[in-house]
Design goal:
The protein is an alpha+beta fold. The chain is 51% helix and 12% strand. It is built from 18 helices and nine strands. A five-stranded antiparallel sheet has the order 1-2-3-4-5, sandwiched between helices.
Length: 593
């Protein structure tokens, strides 16, 4: 039934006069809103904990559609700290889906599961995507899973079990990547919405940067080796790499479209006046172009069209009706695991079964797992690696291990929001992307949409009582970890000691930033001097940073130090410096300097 509806919608869209590319792309986007819910929680002290839930969503005719929720702890300094983040699209994976993930599922699709009945009742408290007190849990989970795989390979006496583990690993990695890219896209939209309408109740930019960094850290085992001091540069490099990949694919797609005599129109997903978060493209053909001289249409073409658009009878018919009309041929995602090749998600004239386009990739993964079970000689592995390297080129589809989730999940999210395309085309786009995925662990767009209000309702049920308990537990677990309290309950003295410790750590971060700051205009002298006074009160707890501070001050004094701060700097370079140097020599062995 779903296949029939899909094909019928496609035929009707093709027969419609609104099939022109100019009619499909509207370049409009709905408004995003951040709604903040204050939460006050009693505890064992006289100070009531002040938390909040910041919900990203957009208004519609039925009210408000939420997409992501971030739990926040409000600080007097204004640097609101994230505590947990929920991707409200997320649902629980069923037992049956986990069983299906043990074997290659070649023909099952998300589209087949899109119209399943979904319970509207409020469920249990949903598990957060990431929690403040377990900032590297995802990376350690990957280490544990890799250990299971390695042990399985070493034992290798139960070959069928090895095959099942490898297949489950493939689907698990695909699900994890899709969830990562979807959540990271929502974080970027939260950042864009913050820039448009700022509020003291929103997450602070510094904490948002930390949240992005923690997501990247938990993406793989390599996150264990990423230094927290380099969080800003790590996030910037990651986002620059994503933008560069989209730009590279876009430029190459424009070149190939020009070579083949086709037109291309980009679809930029993002807020008006802001850089696009995701980019897609519409390939089209004008009737007037049919009369021009062209080269033969290649069967193995760059855009993966299984028909010759210049000779297709339906295209010819539409071209005769209006030679200047832009006839859309396909919609592509300009960003995927394929290095320079866009991912085809909608073929308007020969859709076929979208999953069969990906079935070769699924079979390749299953073959890899089978060969891993049987064992492959060294020369065979070299030949296999050579073939895969040759496939990973600009003009040839590379069947990767985790699908094309880099751009697919972001585009699927925007299609659900109804951005830039009319409702019928958005629906067609979502269904086509759903039907390309055969991962039983991943939910369809329809089910994700049903999860949104149910998950937010589950978080806020019973007047937020379970949420209050959850936030208090997370916060006090953090206090116990910082103050090394073990399982002890948190009382007034512990909270005061924690706040004092937090002030010291913030001052130390300011001092580190000053020591690493190459540009003097970026220095806030008042904050630096206050941070130095706070850190120096703690004696020899951070002698290395104090020594670096004094060395830098000596190089700046007196010409580059404001007159109002010169007495304090002179004091720092005098008596206090001698004490700090002595403490530094006592605390750090000469061999370690």
């Amino acid at each position: 039934m779903i296949r029939l509806i899909f094909l019928l919608a496609l035929i009707l869209s093709c027969l419609s006069t609104a099939l022109s590319a100019e009619g499909l792309v509207s370049h409009s986007s709905p408004n995003l809103e951040i709604r903040n819910i204050p939460i006050w929680t009693d505890n064992n002290t006289s100070q009531t904990y002040h938390f909040g839930l910041s919900v990203l969503g957009m208004p519609d005719e039925d009210g408000f559609v939420p997409f992501m929720a971030i739990a926040i702890r409000y600080l007097d300094s204004g640097e609101n700290q994230w505590m947990a983040v929920w991707n409200l699209n997320r649902g629980e994976t069923s037992f049956v889906a986990n069983l299906k993930a043990l074997v290659p599922n070649l023909w099952g699709t998300l589209g087949d599961r899109s119209e399943d009945d979904v319970e509207e009742v409020i469920g249990d408290f949903p598990e957060p995507y990431l929690v403040w007190t377990a900032k590297r849990r995802g990376a350690w989970k990957e280490v544990g899973w890799s250990s299971v795989k390695t042990a399985n390979r070493v034992i290798n006496w139960v070959n069928p079990f090895h095959f099942l583990v490898e297949n489950y690993t493939h689907y698990r990695a695909d699900k994890k990547e899709r969830l990562f890219h979807q959540t990271y896209t929502l974080l970027r939209l939260y950042e864009e919405a913050m820039a448009i309408s700022s509020s003291s109740l929103n997450l602070s930019p510094k904490s948002l940067l930390d949240l992005k960094y923690r997501m990247i850290v938990n993406r793989s085992t390599f996150g264990l080796f990423l230094e927290e001091e380099n969080a800003f540069s790590i996030v910037q490099r990651f986002e620059s790499s994503m933008r560069e990949k989209m730009s590279s694919v876009s430029c190459y797609a424009h070149v190939k479209a020009n070579e083949l005599g086709l037109g291309i129109e980009e679809i930029n997903y993002g807020l008006p006046g802001r850089p696009p978060v995701c980019r897609a493209a519409l390939i089209y053909l004008r009737g007037a172009d049919l009369e021009q001289e062209r080269r033969p249409w290649p069967a193995n073409n760059f855009f993966d069209l299984s028909f010759d658009p210049f000779e297709h009878p339906r295209v010819q018919e539409l071209a005769q009706q209006d030679p200047e009309e832009q006839i859309p041929l396909g919609i592509y995602i300009l960003g995927s695991e394929n290095r320079m090749k866009p991912a085809l998600v909608v073929d308007f004239f020969n859709p076929g079964n979208p999953l069969r386009r990906r079935a070769t990739g699924t079979m390749k993964v299953a073959l890899d797992h089978f060969l891993a079970v049987q064992g492959l000689p060294l020369l065979g592995k070299i030949a296999k690696g050579t073939v895969e390297y040759c496939l990973d080129k600009k003009d040839v589809s590379y069947f990767d291990a985790t699908s094309v989730a880099v751009g697919i999940e972001a585009a699927r999210l925007f299609a659900r929001m109804g951005w830039n395309l009319d409702s019928d085309t958005n629906d067609l786009l979502m269904r086509s992307m759903d039907r390309q995925a055969g991962n039983p662990l991943v939910e369809s767009s329809f089910r994700e949409k049903q999860n949104l209000n149910r998950n937010l309702g589950s978080i806020l049920q019973s007047d937020g009582g379970e949420l209050r308990l959850f936030l208090r537990t997370v916060f006090e677990d953090h206090i116990r970890n910082v103050m090394d309290l073990g399982n002890k309950a948190v009382f007034e003295a512990d909270l005061l000691a924690y706040q004092d410790r937090l002030e010291y750590l913030e001052a130390l971060e300011t001092l580190k930033a000053f020591n690493n700051e190459p540009h003097l205009p970026g220095i806030a002298w008042g904050e630096v001097i206050a941070a130095w006074e706070r850190v120096s009160e703690s004696g020899n707890e951070a002698p290395e940073e104090l020594e670096r501070f004094y060395a830098r001050m000596a190089s700046l004094f007196p010409q580059n130090v404001p007159d109002s701060y010169q007495p304090l700097v002179a004091q720092a370079l005098g008596k206090d410096r001698k004490h700090a140097v002595l403490a530094y020599k006592q605390a750090v062995p000469a061999s370690a300097k």
